[in-house]
Amino acid sequence: MYNNGGIPCSTPPSILDLDLAVFDRVMDVNVRGVMAGIKHASRVMIPRKTSRILCTSSVTAILGGLGQHTYSVSKSTVIGIVRSTAAELCHYGIRINCISPTAIPTPMVVNVLGQIYSGLDDARLREIVHNAGALGGANSETDDIANAAVYLASDDAKYVSGHNLVVDGGFTIFKNFGFPTPDQVS
């Protein structure tokens, strides 16, 4: 089962302005929906003694400041749900993993960016997403997530459970201080 439900949100960037009604709505879908999916799938999967559950998180869950608080918190919680339920369900041969993609120019991402960068067409918004990548010579595409899902659902990943597979072209592996090089300092 691929537990891939989730909604974005439009909330102010400051925690001081957090709209708790929006927070509750996003948590209901992005967190409660994932938990409900796992609960109900488990009822069918436990008697079979084998199965796979995949969930979608996000790089916003593992690196602060990339998204709005509400969305980031909801996706961080998905990772916790996967790890917690994997600990129980592994005894029944059920593997649960999640995938944390970087920004991909999906309709949802393009729509959100269109609200931020009003006046830009979809092609330019997709270009902005692709230019934000870290891995030279490659762009994030939906096929990258599909391939990660195929791997995690396959027998090639038969001993992988409770894992968060980050598919981000190396985006979250580094952050530099931006110090000048020695020849730039006088």
| Biggest sheet layout | 4 strands, parallel
Low-confidence stretches: none
Quote the average pLDDT: 93
Helix content: 40-55%
Overall geometry comes to globular
Q: Record the strand order, biggest sheet.
A: 1-2-3-4
Structural class: alpha/beta
Number of helices: 5
Q: Using only CA atoms, what is the Rg?
A: 18 Å
* Beta strand %: 5-15%
Record field, number of beta strands = 4
Beginning-to-end CA distance, first to last residue: 59 Å
Helix and strand pattern: EHEHEHHHE
Description:
The protein has 186 residues and is an alpha/beta fold. The protein is built from five helices and four strands, in the order E-H-E-H-E-H-H-H-E. Helix 2 links the parallel strand 2 (51-56) and strand 3. The protein is globular and about 65 Å long. The protein starts with a strand and ends in a 19-residue tail after the last strand. The mean pLDDT is 93.
Please provide a brief summary of the model:
By secondary structure, the chain is an alpha/beta fold. The protein contains 5 helices and 4 strands; from the N terminus they run βαβαβαααβ. It has a 4-stranded parallel β-sheet, sandwiched between helices.
What key attributes describe this structure?
186 residues; alpha/beta; 5 helices
Secondary-structure map:
Blueprint (H helix, E strand, L loop, with lengths): L1 E2 L16 H29 L2 E6 L12 H21 L4 E8 L5 H10 L5 H10 L10 H12 L10 E4 L19
Parallel strand pairs: 1-2, 2-3, 3-4
